[in-house]
Structures are given as C-alpha cells and as structure tokens.
# Entry
Amino acid sequence: MSAFEVNFDGLIGPTHNYGGLSDGNLASANNSGEVSNPREAALQGLEKMRMMVRFGLVQGVFPPQPRPDDWTYIDTRMTGEHTAFDAARDIPRAARTDPRLLKVAYSASAMWAANAATVSPSADTLDGELKLTAANLASMLHRSFEHPTTTEVLRQIFKATTTVSAARVFPALHSHPDFGDEGAANHVRLCADHGGEGVELFVYGRTAGESTAGFPARQTLEASQAIARAHGLRPERTVFARQSRKAIDAGAFHNDVVCVGTLDTLFFHEFAFEDTPGTLDALRRAGNGLFALKSIMVPAADVPLADAVSSYLFNSQLLQMPGEDRLVLFAPTETRDTASTARYCEALVAGNGPIGRVEFVDVRQSMRNGGGPACLRLRVVLTDAELASVHQGVILDELKIDRLQDVVRLTYRDTLTPADFADPDFAVEALEAYEAIVAALDLPSLA
Ligand code: SUG
# Structure
C-alpha cells in the first residue's frame, strides 16, 4: 500500500512564555523569566509549515490548547473550592498565593506536537488500523494535563469516534511516573518505504520503580511496552533501547534531542544510547527482510554532546523530498550558528551518505524553551484513504497559512512576561485568541 508521511505541527499558542518549568531541559532553565513574543513564535512556526508546503510535502496543524482553562482544575486542589473559573476573582488570587501554579496553568507546551502521542501506521499493526496513543507527560506538572485535550483533538482530527474511523486513538496511559510517556519524541519508525511494514524503536530512560540521580528520565520501558502491546505491533519488529544516562544528564530530556530517523536511516549521537552496538544489532535483526539499516553515528569528537544539545542538530526533521534521492536534514538555525555542527553538516552533505542536503529554519522562540523543528511536529504516516478521512480544516496550503498568520497578528501579543499572568484581562484575551484559531481551523472549541 502506498503511504506518505504527514507532519502535523502544533500551532504555538497565545500564552507562549519562558516559565522555567522543565527540570532537566537546559534551554527552559536558562531562559526562565525572559520576555517572550507569542506572536513571533506562532509566525515562525507557521513559516516553518509554509516551507514544508513549498517543499511539496503534506502539512497539517494541531490547534493550541485553551489556556488558562485548566486553571480551576488545578486551583481547586490548591484551595479546596469548586467554583467555576472567574478570571477577575481567581487570577489575582492565584498570582498572590501561588504564581508558579498560575504559570503552570498558562503553559503553552502543547505546541510540541512530538509529545502529543505515539503513532503506529496501519502497515505496522496486526489489525491494519492506524493507532495513536496520547502521551500522559506525567513527569512535568505543566505538561501532565495536556492529554485529555490532546485525546479529544486527535479524535476530532482523525475522526476516530465515528463508526467508519480510519484510526484508533487511545487515551493516555495511567498518569504515574512508572508509566511516564512522552510520545513520539522517544519513538522512531524505520522502513523501506512509508507504506510498507516497518520497525518501531522505543527509547526509554528508566524502568518503573528505578530511582535515579541527576536529571529526570521521563520515559519508562513499561510505558513503551504497554503502547507497543496496545498498538498490536509485531514483537519481532519492535525494539526497546535505553537512552544513555550521559545524554539525559547533558540535557537530552527526550531521545529526539540526540537522534532522528526515517525510512532506512538512523542519525544519532555517539552518546545517544546506553548500548549502541546492541541497539543497532537489534534494529538490524528487526528489519531483516524489510530494509538494510543505514546508520550515521556522529562522534563526540566531531560534535560534543553539549553542542548537540545547545544546537539541536538531531532535533531536525529528516525528510524525503519529492524527486530527490537523498534525504534532507531540516535543521534549526542554531545548528548553522554553532561551529562544530556547522562544520559537521558541511562534511555530511559532501560525503556519499544518505543525507544529501541541509536546510535551516528559524524557530528561535520555541528553541529557547527546548523545542526544535522536530519537537514541533508529530509524524503520521497515512495512506490516501486515511488522509481523505482526516478533518480537512487542519491540512494546510499557503492560503490557509496566510489566514492563520492574520489571526495571529490580530489576536496575539508580541511581549509577554510571566508577571503578565496576574492580569485577568490577559486570561480573557488568551482565550479569545484560542477561539479565533480553532474557528479558522473549523474545529469545535474545547474551552
Ligand atoms: O517538555 N519545554 C518542553 C520542550 C519539549 C520539546 N519536545 C521534544 N523534545 N520533543 C519540555 O521540556 C518548557 C516550558 C517552560 O519552561 O515554560 C517546556 O515545557
């Protein structure tokens, strides 16, 4: 069956800010409290989507989540009250009593669509149905309440609630650190061509119950195994590999900070995996009869781990362009601006390997929170029939991108500090901007 990869990018929301909320994410910590520019952030994200459309690729978009609509949910646990949310009363009180919690409630982190879900294309599942499992994001409070809305949005978009659904959307795993799941950021699919059977690689940072010192390892082996079972993946085509502690402690809080793969190619840092030869061996065995693995390991001597993490070289999208033999690495501009990664990219394309070209994209607003090009998108391999059944309001062309940019220019602020969250008018403004975006995507509001 022929199929292709569709990238669904998260549209950056009107409350995009630098909250310093993610332990173990160096960019989030380093930029904590800085002034953000939600308007520029969303425009940059939409320009990235425009580049993909111009490349001739199918590009989709996920709406932001309504913020601060979960605030009452969080706050009732703080105050014991169960009254309906009233911005004029509740926002100043929260700003007084617990400004960090208020920041949590305003988090725009759902923009990083790679953390929305794990996706198994219909070619990989035993019953031939596309499967998506929303990620519980149980490790970070500000992300742990994204999943109910994510499940709902995925069901709206993939029409997974109708009787003729082309996809099944599973709700998130039980929200406990032992089942910590961060979605596609820790998942790579390898294959000969997108429509054929593939191998799914799940990368975890710890096992349930294991105590670790250092930065949090967010994904557990048990969560990855539960998803593989729920999706009906063939055990012989599934690989579980441990991320190296060294990478996590250097700030690689997701595997996609040190590794990216597509088709038969895996591009990764020397210190990405705890056991590199074992992981490559397991991938070769799992891909036996399907494809011959092409691995590109970047030595620490060429790109030190610290540079890989600050430049986000591996948080690039690895793309198969129409009419091109070799893959294109769609990398953040920070990769061009970091000496070691710029040098590495030049050598990479000069060689005869599977990557023939590097393109750069400016997503600096997102990068300053630890979210590069690959974080911003969720890959969904779809057949023609599956694509036809997707909600068409979220499949983009340049005209729709223009319209979304107009809405952003009209409704988003260009300056935001965490202190602005104390202003009740901002809560109203942010929810109005959200409503304008979902209306432009022809989706029902979930506020
Ligand atoms: O979960 N940053 C996100 C970045 C997610 C990047 N995604 C992938 N690697 N796929 C995170 O740490 C920071 C928010 C703040 O500090 O305000 C944040 O949530």
